Amino acid sequence: MPNVSIKEVARLADVSIATVSRSINNPEQVTEKTRLKVQDAIAKTGYSPNKLAQNFRRGRTNMVMVVLPSVGDPFFTAVMKGIRAAARNKGYSVVIEETQLNTLTADEIGAMLVSNQTDGIILLASVSPFGTEISSAKSHRQLPIVIGCETISPELADFPSVHIDNIAAAKEATNYLISQGHKRIAMIYGQESSLLTKDRELGYRAAMKQAKLPIADGWVVEGELTIAGARKATRNLMSHNDRPTAIFCANDEMAIGCLHEVKSAGLSVPEDVSVIGFDDIRYAEVTDPPLTTISQPAEEIGERVMYRLCRRIDAGNGTSSAPEIVPHKLVIRQSVAKPAN
Amino acid sequence: MPNVSIKEVARLADVSIATVSRSINNPEQVTEKTRLKVQDAIAKTGYSPNKLAQNFRRGRTNMVMVVLPSVGDPFFTAVMKGIRAAARNKGYSVVIEETQLNTLTADEIGAMLVSNQTDGIILLASVSPFGTEISSAKSHRQLPIVIGCETISPELADFPSVHIDNIAAAKEATNYLISQGHKRIAMIYGQESSLLTKDRELGYRAAMKQAKLPIADGWVVEGELTIAGARKATRNLMSHNDRPTAIFCANDEMAIGCLHEVKSAGLSVPEDVSVIGFDDIRYAEVTDPPLTTISQPAEEIGERVMYRLCRRIDAGNGTSSAPEIVPHKLVIRQSVAKPAN
DNA sequence: CTGAAAGCGCTTACAG
DNA sequence: CTGAAAGCGCTTACAG
Questions:
Q1: D strand bases under 7 Å from protein CB
Q2: Topology (CATH) of B166-295
């Protein structure tokens, strides 16, 4: 029953298939009377155009793909909301592709586009390994790819992007800790390969340096971007012989693990140890204590990145590729206090 | 540069386009020598088949779509892992479609399939409104749709599904509270339109009835499936003149909000109020106190649902559509204790 | 405003 | 094993 083609409709309405096509896609090009006849035939047959044929014929899908590290990451709820709003506005449907962290290569990305499966791609995940792909990436530069949230790796630097200033934000978080009187400040970063958390580490180091505070060996530890990883990292920190009084976590997910582990060690937050996060996911305000963190304008990023992509798709390479920096904000809750000693 | 077609490759390799096609898709049908020639030409041109044309010609995409309520819901991380594992195994790529809770109608689902955009659909979100679509849904019954996690609404009852027994699980959760000595047990359910949380409510009511425990007016309250909604619901519960000593939340997301709000009211968990959740999302073990909850075998559900879908796609309607029930498990942590009084 | 015709890039019987 | 040809279901100049 699904499989009536345009021919059947044309036969029933007693017009050519061209007219059926026009009635659907450019109704202003046919007379009212014809349109009605066709409409009738469509209703009778239950016809719906074969999208596969349309896509093929038109050479486009009106679909964009957003690539993100993992479904289930609460940070992306708001980003997607923004993307979706903009997409609806522009007549695109959006489809999500999940990639295990750092698994997609630039070539694979390119292949998706080249093979026409989608009209454009929004990258919300980092792409690697880079290196051998650099040269091919160069030829990809015209492709409609836009990067959101992530820090762009060198070989993708020519693609447009929209994100906060991660270095500055991390610096601000660290400075806040310093302003509260902390001197022994540790950091849990994501993973070596994550440029984004690398930037946050850079900001932390810059702030520490500027305040002339030393960073002891073992104070900067990898949290693997997961709760489990952060818990392990925190355990190490808590048993460090020069135990820090504050911990800056490169994201809230890890901060949640950190919070739990500090308390498990019999210490209290923020009295004994202050914790600060990054992202302001929705769980951050209901942790115990509520988490002080950096908030990103996630929905706005989503919207902007989608509009940016549309411009790329429409205008090709003519559009600017300067990164768009959106403002972050320090959200003060209760997980940071002045140090006891 | 992306746009060489099969013709160009054929010209370069000095063979017909049929041979090029065969070299790629059925290499065993061509001689080694031809294959090499073609391979060479492909390398030279950077040719990659136009997927749009392939999909159209083949009448299929080798893509399945999973429909879920929202990216950013941590419950789906594991489900997707299972789906992806099975999909890889079967040669499908998977694409995710987000739907605001309860926004997709059966007709829209059908349209996706009928228009060939995808070979099959996994529904992890409920579909509504049902009613007018029932009849058309009947004609959809042959479509490759499989439902996971969700409780199926009447008009979708003929589609295969895999999920836990939500009623039994909710009963078990409630009975656990009862076994600890609780008599005044409240419940925060999801939303009226969510069949899944409706089932959980049914289980709760059954357990209460069986234990001959009364449910006071205002003890069963809507949490909107969100943290904010659950907080509001909890506030009402905490100011109820017959305050419950335990709260069963229809999912962990709401339990997290509930936990926070109980503590905000100056009460402690579990000493004053016990809280039990549902789903065992990854945050459940790091809440304060760690959350006692019902765990679902999410990854297994994902795998099974994908394999089930494959059978549907391959065998058409010949496959059974009996629901597959997978086992749940009560995970006891620290958010439940015996009541004080 | 409408129709006949070309053609998008593939795949696949059908011959040879 | 290979090629010539048909055809998948649309859209869109080109005539009229």
A1: 1-5, 7-13
A2: Rossmann fold (3.40.50)
pLDDT digits (tens, 9 = 90+) for B223-267: 999 999 999 999 999 999 999 999 999 999 999 999 999 999 999
Nucleotide showing the shortest C1' distance to residue A58 CA? D11
Name the one residue in this structure whose structure tokens are 């503590």: B263
The CATH number for B6-49, chosen from 1.10.1740.10, 1.25.10.10, 1.10.260.40, 3.40.1000.70, is 1.10.260.40
Q: Are strands A145-148 and B220-222 parallel, antiparallel or unpaired?
A: unpaired
Q: Where are the domains of chain B?
A: 6-49, 60-163+298-326, 166-295
CATH level 2 (architecture), domain B60-163+298-326: 3-Layer(aba) Sandwich (3.40)
Cα B94 off chain centre by? 14
Query: CB neighbours (10 Å) of residue A318?
Result: 8
Whether pLDDT at B2 is above 60: no
Which candidate, A201, A173, A153, A194, places its Cα nearest to that of A323?
A153
Pairs from B192-196 (Cβ < 8 Å, separation ≥ 24): B192/B222, B193/B102, B193/B126, B193/B128, B194/B101, B194/B102, B194/B126, B194/B225, B195/B126, B195/B150, B195/B151, B195/B152, B195/B153, B196/B126, B196/B149, B196/B150, B196/B151, B196/B166
Task: Answer yes or no: same fold for B60-163+298-326 and B166-295.
Answer: yes
List pLDDT tens digits, range B59-74. Answer: 888 889 898 988 999 9
> Closest CA to D1 C1' — which residue?
B30
B139 and chain A in contact, CB less than 8 A: yes
